[in-house]
């Protein structure tokens, strides 16, 4: 049955956004319930969900249009493309589907428990995590098979991420109340495309709010009250890279090295962190984030506001303030180093990291295969510490090929090779 659209109106057109830096409030409403999820299936079309409705953009978030579906829960959602998406209906165990870009929704299946997470692996393969189980569909959601039934009662959030067509990871956090309240997270892995899952890690007193992998070996997780964790051995072991006792509801990774959590960011894969201005809003109210390119991203959320609620959309057009060369750590390094750029090969942008043990005049130059200088990235005195440089080859009109970048800092000099493929 199709749901009734109660309200349809243009909410706003953000103006002069490119003149603003860092994160800024693009939209706020102190009478609407909070946004819980933001989804961009491509760089142009996006959806911000809240109980009873969604906001839609068809121009990369410049304008948003409000669509109210008062009977739908919309607690989580996933889109395969700008037309086809899945979410949660009036029954919190009811899966609903749209085929027209969110303009109408139909109920297609009811699960035994509350739907917590939806993941499209491809156009046919979909996974749904419920309180105590994970289901797989091989026909776009028309029928479902139980593939894992091992979650603890009290599970609230799940994350599923695939690093290739066969290998995937799933986190199942839960809060146990008997005999007393405690947290735990189990990490599962599949090597057959999600048909079977193996328990590879158990973390006591840790609650994953979101988990993401950048390749089969390396992953990151945001937590409630335990900061950010990282794995380098396919999820078997996890270690802290940033401790903070706040509640972090999401983790967003852009171009491998840039990591965002509510109120904080790292430009170098979690080595160093710095605070970001979120207009004094408590990070607990930031619920979901997504970047549509290296610089443009959105955060949605909200919460109680006295007797009412409030909802907001934050936006950045400069990576949240991480642009160009950023001095990110006042701790003195005990050595000089130049890291391999990532990604490599790249198109058109890559990130170069380096460390300085003492202050001094520093240059970072790019040369072509014949030794001709094609770009000057750094040419100034810098303090000791860690640095990250964004190199955008399109700014220098460089063709595909092999290039070299050289760091000169006092008596230290090192060169590494990188490959541009267009």
Separation of the first and last Cα atoms: 47 Å
The number of helices is 0
Taking all Cα atoms into account, the compactness measure Rg is: 23 Å
Shape: globular
Poorly predicted spans: 1-10, 12-19, 323-333
What would you call the structural class? Answer: mainly beta
Strand order of the largest sheet: 1-6-5-4-3
Mean pLDDT level: 85
Number of strands: 37
Helicity range: under 10%
- As a percent range, the share of strand residues is over 45%
Biggest β-sheet description: 5 strands, antiparallel
Which helices and strands appear, and what pairs or packs with what?
Blueprint: E1 8-13, E2 24-29, E3 37-39, E4 46-50, E5 53-57, E6 63-68, E7 77-79, E8 85-88, E9 94-98, E10 106-110, E11 115-120, E12 126-130, E13 134-137, E14 145-148, E15 159-162, E16 168-176, E17 182-190, E18 198-204, E19 208-213, E20 219-223, E21 228-231, E22 239-242, E23 252-254, E24 258-261, E25 264-266, E26 274-275, E27 286-291, E28 297-305, E29 308-316, E30 325-327, E31 337-338, E32 349-356, E33 360-367, E34 373-382, E35 385-392, E36 401-409, E37 412-420
Antiparallel strand pairs: 1-6, 2-29, 3-4, 4-5, 5-6, 7-8, 8-9, 9-10, 11-12, 12-13, 13-14, 15-16, 16-17, 17-18, 19-20, 20-21, 21-22, 23-24, 24-25, 25-26, 27-28, 28-29, 30-35, 31-32, 32-35, 33-34, 33-36, 36-37
